[in-house]
């Protein structure tokens, strides 16, 4: 998990505001030295020379992260992928740490990638559903956040209501990671950015076309694309007046306004909205085209080359 290693430093379950060293965390570096590992650059990017502050931070939305912090997370992810998956290195950076995984909604990719990634780093993930714990019945979200804070080092939650994540972040003393909510899906977008970075060699200057529903995945794109220097072109279905149930298919006007407020200058990185997929995909000539396949309980994104 690219976020977990940067957000966690040492046990005790306490959120700490101290700065993260320029590569990994202090305890992680100690473990690297113990196993004779150095922190190299990868062919997917170089380590950002910056002083970021990630230890103990929540990951609820990418809107709360700066461009340098997003680049740092992507560098960590690409470095770990190269060293663990391709080189077969053993890096128990999360040894002795546990991750509580609360899943109100079913998942294949998010659950498997989180469990596998945390385990590969030496940590212990605990999968919890509403049938396993007293979430929202005998125990409130406040009680759950406090109890898990005393027993685990971080919480990854996949919930229906984003407000539940905000409440958990307020009450918990350990980092809260958004595994999906009705508003945002930051882990999905970080994975998509890593794929784009590997394929195109970088994100700055890319024009990304989004064709599909205006959902949580798109909202995470909107909250971060401009920070990484990418242009975003959006085509979402228009809501038909006789189909009030389709209200969730369009992009949130409030989030569009917030995204444009992040953009410096008249057009750089600003999202352009259209109801015509062909215009978005061909006339505006994007680099990758991303379309959405929607299901009743989740969504998945597909990336293709805009030139094909």
TrEMBL record:
Pfam families recorded: OTCace, OTCace_N
GO MF entry, a single one: ornithine carbamoyltransferase activity
E.C. numbers: 2.1.3.3
Keyword Transferase: yes
Pathway: Nitrogen metabolism; urea cycle; L-citrulline from L-ornithine and carbamoyl phosphate: step 1/1
Residue ranges of domain Aspartate/ornithine carbamoyltransferase Asp/Orn-binding in the record: 204-239
Domain Aspartate/ornithine carbamoyltransferase carbamoyl-P binding stretches: 57-198
GO biological process: citrulline biosynthetic process; L-arginine biosynthetic process via ornithine; urea cycle
Keywords: Transferase, Urea cycle
Top-rank taxon: Eukaryota
InterPro entries, per the entry: Asp/Orn_carbamoyltranf_P-bd (IPR006132), Asp/Orn_carbamoylTrfase (IPR006130), Asp/Orn_carbamoylTrfase_sf (IPR036901), Asp_carbamoyltransf_Asp/Orn-bd (IPR006131), Orn/put_carbamltrans (IPR002292)
Subunit and partners: Homotrimer.
Family the entry assigns: Belongs to the aspartate/ornithine carbamoyltransferase superfamily. OTCase family.
Protein name, as recorded: ornithine carbamoyltransferase
